[in-house]
# Entry
Amino acid sequence: MDTVTEKLQTQFPEAIVAIYEFRGDTTVTVKPEQLVAVCQFLRDDPETSFKYLSAVSGVDYYPASPRFAAVYHLYSHQYKKRFALKAFCANDEVPVLPSVVPVWSTADWHEREAYDLVGIKFSGHPDLRRILTPPECEGYYPLRKDYPQEGY
# Structure
């Protein structure tokens, strides 16, 4: 167990759903209602210092439930350490997670891309709109596993 995971378990014991380690990388799954607080802690704590959000990935686990999740890929330049947070959407029909734009401004475009391609809505996002898919794709999300393969 690394120091970051131990700090999270101490600071947010009720927020952690799962911890997964693979080849030196750690992913911590947190409850969506605690996501923003955990992100702020990871950014601001001097012993973690995850000041850089490198990506937000929308994931479709169809046919599993919960179906949708977002993975937040963080990096600490100070400690040269990677870390990943995952949060599952509570509702499979209308996937929603809180926006982390107030924590990292770079989340703006990452969340828009996850919304555009997977359909995860980010509550509190300052400008959540589609950026890649054309207007005729309204109602479709190309990275969903049930996306129609022929003619939409």
